[in-house]
Amino acid sequence: MNESCDNCHGTTTFLGARFNHGAVAPGSCATCHNGTRAAGKPNDAAHQHTAACDQCHNTSTFLGARFNHTVAGVAPGSCATCHGTGGGARTKVPVPHYAGSCDNCHNTNTFVGAKFDHSAVTPGTCTTCHGTGGTAKTKVPVPHFSGSCDLCHTTSAFTPNRSYTHISAFYKAHNSGAQCYDCHTSHTNVANWPSSTYKPDCAGCHATKYKPDKHKKYGSVLYTVSELRNCAGSCHEYTDSTLTTISKTRNSKHRSTDGGF
């Protein structure tokens, strides 16, 4: 190079010379760093690519280099070439980890803030990753619902969760407006029944709202909560004249719009 010696070397020693790269044209690193005039690109696993030095290293120091995955032309799905067990990249795939390609979750600019695409995950297999021994960072909370995660959560986000529809015939009218915490106040799988004596019938929750004057047996004789606990009590068929023991129930359920119980 046609530079004065003291542009790099100090006046007391030639050791520790540091070249000022400020005027070097981008992409021309190999003009000097070819192994003859200056040290060339290291022949190690971390440098098995064709990108110019200044795509990762800046002109003031070679330390703290950051690989540019876009300019270097990294082929999608080839992350393990460098980030695998025998690859040259310092950042390895954590163990345990997702078995797919890195770029399924991470973008080419940063590994922070990765978001897994669940669209191709087989329904019902959530605990493969989110279980106790799974690879996902997000585990199933304890205590929690014992069914599969995707019965409540979608494949794109865990919040907000989908509204849970109870499959029991007792709660057919409660699949829209009710929130989980309306019944599951302690965040367990067991609901807090206001009137546990009558669970799991309608009266288990609604006994305190029962209105005797809305439920007449015959004349002035009224039904009790116990008789109509599952909203299916008969109006006329009893075992004796006291009208206290039902012998046969109606076929249809009590309608929630009747204004009574």
From TrEMBL:
Q: Which Gene3D superfamilies match?
A: Cytochrome C3 (3.90.10.10)
Output this protein's name. Uncharacterized protein
